[in-house]
Amino acid sequence: xxEVATLSRPYANAIFGLAQESNSxxxxxxxxxxxxxxxxxxxxxTMLNSPDLAxxxxxxxxAELCADEINDEANPFLQALAEHDRLLLLEEVxxxxxALRAEQExxxxxxxxxxxxxxxxxxxxxxxxxxxxYDREVSIASRTDASLIGGAVIxxxxxxxxxxxxxxxxxxxxxxxxx
Length: 179
What we know:
Layout: H1 4-21, H2 25-39, H3 42-49, H4 55-65, H5 74-83, H6 90-105, E1 107-114, H7 120-134, E2 137-144, E3 152-156, E4 159-162, H8 165-178
Parallel strand pairs: 1-2
Antiparallel strand pairs: 1-3, 3-4
Helix pairs in contact: 1-2, 1-6, 2-6, 4-5
């Protein structure tokens, strides 16, 4: 079977093109996020995986559940997914759509997990450094995880920088085991 990313790409590209033409990137981001959140519910998952419902009915029910929070063009999109038995690709379509949007808007969402809370100065310095390196507007979301012991793990797109003490100890153990 083809990769999920490969199957999702044409849908993400089509929706992105439509959103660009109608100047509705934000509306589509919201609609896709609502659809993904709703489709992640266990009861909705059961409905989407049910062999008893026709694909078009699944799409209609999902659209009904989200009707107040999605744009008008989302229903034909859901029908197109359903027609090709691709409703379960919603999350990957959303991820690829958001990547295309970030590329166009020259933005980069960065997740920082640190052992201790970042100070405002540290956050600002990291943001400035990443903006310079990637030539993009950077937004940082940070959280703490004491299990890192010290340091931080930075995720910027598909780049992961593990500067945590736990990560360094893991690498040290791997090196010692190899010898």
